[in-house]
Amino acid sequence: MAAAGAVAAAIANAIKASGVVVKLEPTDFETIVRKAEKPLIIFNEGGLFSSKYQYMTSYKGFAFFTKSRVPMALPSNAEMVVTRKIWLP
């Protein structure tokens, strides 16, 4: 029983640490990014059989995430960070 309690506590702590991630459609993501003065966008390109593009940004305390089959047109003032992987809880 103690082990089950420890696992439940670990899961609860992981959820608290990961915060809130809001999944959006690409067009809605673009809208959020354009509202930010100088957005920081985390970007990943991957896929086994076809390309997929993943994007993440923060706005007003929330993390926003989207996937797209084609590269998105992002504002020129955006700072891009390219990663090998984006992991979501």
Which series of helices and strands comes N to C?
Answer: HEHEEEE
The fraction of residues assigned to DSSP E strands is: 25-35%
Quickly count the helices.
2
Strand order of the main beta sheet, please?
Answer: 1-4-3-2-5
Give the distance, in angstroms, between the N- and C-terminal Cα atoms.
Answer: 25 Å
Point out poorly predicted stretches: none
Give the class-level CATH name.
Answer: Alpha Beta
Cα Rg: 16 Å
Largest sheet: 5 strands, mixed
Helix content: 25-40%
Provide the structure class: alpha/beta
Corresponding CATH architecture: 2-Layer Sandwich
Shape: globular
Number of domains: 1
Number of strands: 5
Question: Any idea of the CATH topology?
Answer: Signal recognition particle alu RNA binding heterodimer, srp9/1
- State mean pLDDT (0 to 100 scale): 85
Explain what you see.
- By secondary structure, the protein is an alpha/beta fold.
- The chain has a single domain (20-82), classed as Signal recognition particle alu RNA binding heterodimer, srp9/1.
- It is 30% helix and 33% strand.
- It contains 2 helices and 5 strands.
- It has helices at residues 2-18, 26-35; strands at 21-23, 40-46, 52-59, 62-68, 79-82.
- A 5-stranded mixed sheet has the order 1-4-3-2-5, covered by helices on one side.
- The two termini are 25 Å apart.
- 8% of the residues are buried.
- The mean pLDDT is 85.
Short description:
The protein is an alpha/beta fold and about 90 residues long. The chain has helices spanning about 1-20, 25-35; strands spanning about 20-25, 40-45, 50-60, 60-70, 80.
